[in-house]
Design a protein that fits this description.
Order of helices and strands: HEEHEEHHHH
Number of helices: 6
Structural class: alpha+beta
Strand order of the largest sheet: 1-4
Oligomer: single chain
Strand content: 15-25%
């Protein structure tokens, strides 16, 4: 856009990304087998989610949801707070990947992580979160 980095870094406080995911129909919601839950959890061991007492659900499909298994939508969010470390990266014209990696090390929760939290809360499905986040790569949290 032609804006100088010093103007961007001094003006920004935070950035928010959001996506809408379909929510599971409560009338035909069924838990998936434990092996499916374990398979999903194994893929994301580096995310701090306590899933020991939760199930993963899907909508079987009914007249209420027109046999889609979904009814309504909810948001998943990613909030990047602009810290001094992030400001320095902006001033140095760092890539978006470098800025995101720094934000993650400072505790930012990604769209995928927020979406997976909603999967394990029984709000949406794993496939829906993957569909809208396009399977973003998870950096290792250190």
């Amino acid at each position: 856009m032609g804006v100088e980095p010093f103007l961007v870094s001094s003006s920004l406080e935070c950035l928010i990304a959001q996506r809408l995911v379909r929510t599971i129909c409560p009338k035909c919601k069924i838990p998936l087998p434990p092996k499916v839950k374990e398979g999903v959890a194994d893929q994301f061991r580096n995310i701090n989610l306590d899933i020991s007492k939760t199930d993963i659900y899907e909508g079987k499909g009914c007249q209420s949801c027109r046999f889609t298994g979904y009814i309504g939508r909810t948001g998943i969010y990613e909030v990047l707070t602009v810290t001094e470390g992030i400001r320095e990266l902006i001033l140095n014209r760092a890539s978006s990947q470098q800025i995101k990696a720094k934000a993650i090390t400072q505790g930012m929760r990604t769209l995928l992580e927020d979406g997976l939290g909603k999967v394990f809360q029984g709000i949406t499905t794993y496939s829906e979160v993957i569909r809208v986040t396009q399977q973003e790569e998870l950096p290792e949290k250190g």
